Amino acid sequence: MTGKLTALELVLTFLTMLGPATKESLAAVCVLFEALLSYDYETGKFEKCAANKVTGVMGHLIEMAVLYGVQCNAKQLEKLGLNDLDRMRDEAVEAMMVLTFKPLDEVQNMLAAWAEQAVKDGRYQSRVPCG
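Request: output the structure for the sequence above.
Response:
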């Protein structure tokens, strides 16, 4: 991966892909983030419990992606390396606090400000193709 994507930036990127900040979108991103953190590079697998949770919310994720998502292919997506994943695990508390403890309006304001700045400085386009 070329940039240093933080855990909080990943959470905010997921949220921008799923539309406005709602209880449902926060819950969906929480499940995705937990699953990502459970990935084991040695086995190439996700923890079974985390994978089952993603399967449980897959319908909601697909609905939100259809409503708010963008079309992209695997070549357009950046991949996390082992060091990136380890760093995200270290930063997970900050990102999870956004998903679980902040009021929705505060999350939406944070999300809007971050997305605007990320588009301006090019971070967002490198992770989520526009158009």
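The chain has a mean pLDDT of 77.
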